[in-house]
Each structure stands twice: as structure tokens, then as C-alpha cells.
Model the fold of this input.
Amino acid sequence: MQVEGSELFHALCLLIEDSNKQSIRGIRNYNPDQLQDVLVCIRNLKENQTDDFFNEDALRRFILNLWEDHYTGVESVTDMAAILEDRITNRKYSVYDVFLPISGVVITKNLKVGALEFMTSDEWRQNFAKLCKQFDIKETEKEFFDDSLQVPVIKIQVSAFYLKEAITIAISSAQVIVNYLTVKTGNIRKSSYLFQVNTITEIQHLYALAIGHYDGYHRVDQPQKQLLPYKDFVKTITQTDSLLKSLKLISKKIANRTPLTKSEVNLRTALDKQATAYLDMDNQQKITLLIAGMEALLEQPPREVREGIGNQLVHGIVMLLEKHQTHAELEDLNTIEENINELYNIRSRILHGDNVYVFKSGLQILDRYLTAIIDEVADNFNKFNTDEGVASAVKVLRDTKKD
Done:
């Protein structure tokens, strides 16, 4: 195939032409060697020689996801190559509006929390109707979304190079607040659907992607025990406690593509483990997740035996709780240390395959400890928020106390 244009354009044409022959049933296949030729052409561009974004793995994702975003099946090889070449050489963020339906909560008024916007189901239906008209969605396709249109959504606007990157950023941003709500209420859940529309580029259809199933539609029923009234929802989401302030900051940084500090990653991961434990029905999994939350916050690798956690983890926990005032039901420090060691030992036996019965009372104790630790860190997050992580800040405080 003879084409005019740049070396990059020629390499893209060869890649696309060969891929069109290989790809069947909507599955995109490509020749790795030809993709490598494209990567070499991009690296040879003078303006890209020192661009860290264009490492090999990032380039591969960038090219293939741009291809997926823009390919509708009617573009000629040269037209598709021109689109990709333009996006590669003039790489700019596109603005994406991502809609994440949630269940378990009643929302009657629009509410903004950091980078997130909570929208009523009526607002979501109106937005959806406009999108269907704009992108000429067929009636049969609309029916797939009927269930999700009955619930409110979290709307996140993000900038990204391509669709899947936008989805990843939006999910990560919303997940922080969703986890917080789940822990506070035990009731908030994401829907199994994620709706995304690119409002800038030439995409001519509405994307509907299931969380964790980016290659197509996927339906998962998530029954709710009860709905949280709007008044209680607002009370929870608008309170000014330090934890929520920290989470708003983390969520906004994710949406704005600002790197998180190690301490922010610690806090986010701990809350994720705790929220997952709330939704898990297996008590053995619950205790594993709750302890993993403690380990994540204090950066302790999993240990197999009681002695392994020894001084560092237990003493770090005890130190954090030493002056904790918000949980009056906490036991004295010696009892806390004994309880954590015992519960950690139970977790280790479970990981070794023992059939251990986990009492709910033990889970409640562990959950209270993890909640207290999270609250204590978030209460003065500036003191703990460093690039070295929460564990490093705790160590500094412990060494200072010794002096």
C-alpha cells in the first residue's frame, strides 16, 4: 500500500491495514512489530525526545486507546491514520464527563463535594436524554440504561488523553468519597454501570461500560437493604470533620491529575479496605480486610506470625490511639495491644488455611480501632501528610517522644 505523508503516517497506515485484516468479532488485534515501528517513529520526533509521557508502555496504551475511541468501522485506513497522527503529534487533553450511578441514597438537590457533583435521578435522566439526542442513540440501546436512570449519579469532569484513562481517573476520584459514605452509613454502593461521554472529540456514540468490564456491557444486581434519606445524606456528606476534608482534597487531586503523597495513598487505601470489609459477607474476609487496612495506613507488610508484627505495627497503633478522644469506648492501651495481637494471630491462622470461627465482637473491636486510627491521622492530617508516608510520620513522633 503506497501512501504519502510522514514516516509516522506511513507506519500507522501499515499497522491499521494489517490490524483490519486480523481483527474479528470486534476484537482488535495488531502486529507487535508494526506497533514498535510506530513507537520508533514517535520517539524520532524531535519534540518527543525528552517527553517522559512517551515511554513504550504509555505509547502503546495511548495509540491503541485512541484507535478504540475513534474507530467506528467506516473510516478508511488513511483517514484513521490521519486521526491518530494528529492526536499523537498534537497530543492534548480532552474533557470527559463521567457519570457514575450510585445506589442506597436519596438525592433531591444537586450537591458538589470537592471535584464531584452529586446529581438527582431527574437531572441524570435529563442529561441522558440530551446525550441520546446528541449522539443519535437507538431506542433499543436506551432500554439497557433504564435501571440506572432510576438512581442518582456522581458526575466527574476530568481531562485525559483517551477514554479509558478518563474512566480510570474518574473511578479513582469518586471511589474516595464513595468509600467514606459506605463506612459512615454502611449503605452506599456504586452501580454496576459507568456512563461516559466525550464532549470535545469526534466520538459519535455514548459509551456504557461496566466497572471492571471495559470491553462491553455487563449487568450486576446490587440489592439495597435500605435507602439513606436525603437529609441524613447531606448531614453525612457536608459535615466538616477532618477526614472528609482530607478526602475532598485527595479526590480533587486525582481528578486534576495531581500526584498524591504517600500518606494520601495510605489513607485512601485504608479506607478502601474498610469499605470493602463492610460489604463482604464472610467474617474471615472481613478480619483480613480490616487488618490489611491497618497495614496499609502504617505501611506494614503482611506477617505470618504474631511476633512478626511485634513492636513496629502494634506500637505505632497504640501511639496513635494514646491520646485519642473521639472514641470513648476504646479500651486502655494494654488491652488494645492484646486485642490487636490476638486478632492478628487469628488472621494469620486463616491465611494458613485454618478453619477459624471469627466472632462478630472481634470484628467490631477491630473496626473501631481502624476507624479511630483513620480519624486520628485525619484529625491533623498536615502532621502526617508527607511524601514518606504515615508510618514515617509516626516514627518521627515516636522518636521525638523518646527524646
